[in-house]
């Protein structure tokens, strides 16, 4: 998420000091104002590169789902296409065709029926994709409700989702003035609670969001069950509800790893799905995808036409101009890996996650909440009743000393007493690295056990949520 910056954020030392002997060496560069005169490209490059030096190694960042490695050929192709503007369909018709191919490939992965008119688009990420999915749900609901004669001003429309939602849904509901109805999770229901979800639905419900999988733990909502509940509900009302699946991470993972799970357009009431191309689609940020099973679920009012080869092409987006290089990067991965290649990469990732979960469990100190057997996310908490002076936050700090970034945080509402640590395994995290990590983890624990200085209370209450 982009921060909002201002005067208050200026550092006291407000100049940059070029190094490595050069004419410009004499001259300090202001940090918060434009420099009067240009500097040589070499100087500009070095000064900026140096500032980024201590930012942490992205591949040791086990906190993020976002891709941290692409092949040199992919990177080359992407840097050679940075200037292409994805919205200029007329100027870049081949690029538009590449986006079209990607949408169709994803539609087939998600079992969109050729008998329906499915539609989809690339986005900046899942956040924009969810925003578009949510808007379509809102407008489609309003059109249906108005036809049925519902007083749509009498109450705010609402969206039903589990309390394990990613922050983009909060944004969507805030920006579009929608009541967010969150179904609480507890230790027994660590995903959308199927016994209670339909209690939250009424005539003002624009849709239900299922999550494949929950950002904080990696767990999947049971979309098949949800579809059955919705089917039953819709039999008894004119006010139909439908499902959007937020498959930010699962959307480009599950089809390759567990093709037998039914969660996508195979299910009748799933009308739209989003995924992040920059998570298990293996592209650098930012790219996402959103698809609708049929154009009837994407109201016309939301579609804007741009010119395309003398005619027009429908588009749906929040942004206008952006580089097409990420789309081209996604296409590269599809062409390069094919179905089998994606399967093999994800299988290795899966094996690493399962290995890590087993090794961490063996330490005897942690209870595993997600064991990597579905999404390759390992999530654990400290075991109850184990006497330990240190917390998961201390462990995170210790691991940071060896370069590993592993976040600790409390779970969402109703589970906020449970503090967890989460490791997101990605394609570039090999078994060798996993062995090294376990060694460093053991050493960190030993150091914490042997340490005799503790500066904080036994329990720390940090802010919940780690959102990417
Ligand atoms: C990461 C994530 C998002 C947001 O995705 P971006 O691609 O980072 O915008 C939305 N929903 C879920 C479930 C996620 O895991």
UniProtKB/TrEMBL annotation:
<dbReference type="Pfam" id="PF00282">
    <property type="entry name" value="Pyridoxal_deC"/>
</dbReference>
<dbReference type="GO" id="GO:0004351">
    <property type="term" value="F:glutamate decarboxylase activity"/>
</dbReference>
<feature type="modified residue" description="N6-(pyridoxal phosphate)lysine">
    <location>
        <position position="279"/>
    </location>
</feature>
<dbReference type="InterPro" id="IPR015424">
    <property type="entry name" value="PyrdxlP-dep_Trfase"/>
</dbReference>
<dbReference type="InterPro" id="IPR015421">
    <property type="entry name" value="PyrdxlP-dep_Trfase_major"/>
</dbReference>
<protein>
    <recommendedName>
        <fullName>Glutamate decarboxylase</fullName>
        <ecNumber>4.1.1.15</ecNumber>
    </recommendedName>
</protein>
<dbReference type="InterPro" id="IPR010107">
    <property type="entry name" value="Glutamate_decarboxylase"/>
</dbReference>
<comment type="similarity">
    <text>Belongs to the group II decarboxylase family.</text>
</comment>
<dbReference type="GO" id="GO:0005829">
    <property type="term" value="C:cytosol"/>
</dbReference>
<keyword id="KW-0210">Decarboxylase</keyword>
<keyword id="KW-0456">Lyase</keyword>
<keyword id="KW-0663">Pyridoxal phosphate</keyword>
<dbReference type="GO" id="GO:0004058">
    <property type="term" value="F:aromatic-L-amino-acid decarboxylase activity"/>
</dbReference>
<dbReference type="InterPro" id="IPR002129">
    <property type="entry name" value="PyrdxlP-dep_de-COase"/>
</dbReference>
<dbReference type="GO" id="GO:0030170">
    <property type="term" value="F:pyridoxal phosphate binding"/>
</dbReference>
<dbReference type="GO" id="GO:0006538">
    <property type="term" value="P:L-glutamate catabolic process"/>
</dbReference>
